[in-house]
Amino acid sequence: MIVSRSLSLCFLALSAYAASFDLDSSRTEIGFTLHDVLHTVHGTFRMKYGSIQWDPETGKASGLVVVDVASGASGSGVRDRRMHQEILESERYPNAVFTPDRVEGQVALQGLSHVDVHGMLLIHGDQHELVLHIIVQANGSQYLVSTHFTIPYVEWGMKNPSNFLLKVDGKVEMDVHAVTQAHT
Asked: What is the pLDDT of residues 51-90, one digit of tens each?
């Protein structure tokens, strides 16, 4: 009874104020997977900056997560040059920016939580609505967060690198793992 009352008080305390979560760019991993008929390509991007402000009571969120598109690397210089020059056009569009607008669900002060973060992703010069299904592992003021989502890059106006020999999927799978610090 005392334990459940203490947890209830913790949730009430968390919902009484807006929280701010700063993502540690040095401890954030952004991976991508692209399938084609011959093999699967894996690669990474770096995050430049990430901070999300959230009011647990209303669900309203704000902030920015900025990804360095030009940092994209798959381990093949030829493939990466083509990816940057022809598909991502990273010189023209050097950043991808996710701007959250609301969070659905509650983040526990300890243990595992699941939340949906709604927002807009600015990539390749266009805005696209995106919902991130996020798993949060809380440990004090530090939170480990992870999400998996798909970017339909061809549908969103980027070039498909397929040719007569190589057939590449028009969607890329993204996996993000980050460490955040919560501030009140």
From this structure: 999 999 999 999 999 999 999 999 999 999 999 999 999 9
CA distance 62 to 117: 10
Residues 6 or more apart whose CB falls under 8 angstroms from that of 137 comprise 111, 112, 143, 144, 145
Task: Find the CATH number of the domain harbouring 47.
Answer: 2.40.128.110
Structure token digits, residue 94: 């050097």
How much is the average pLDDT of 157-175? 89
Q: What is the largest CA-CA distance in the chain?
A: 67
Query: What is the C-alpha to C-alpha distance for residues 122 and 21, in angstroms, rounded to an integer?
Result: 21
Is-contact 74 42, C-beta < 8 A? Answer: yes
Cβ contacts of residue 61 below 8 Å, gap of 6+? 52, 53, 54, 55, 100, 101, 102, 103, 117, 118, 119
User: What type of residue sits at position 109?
Assistant: L
Structural domain tally of the chain? 1
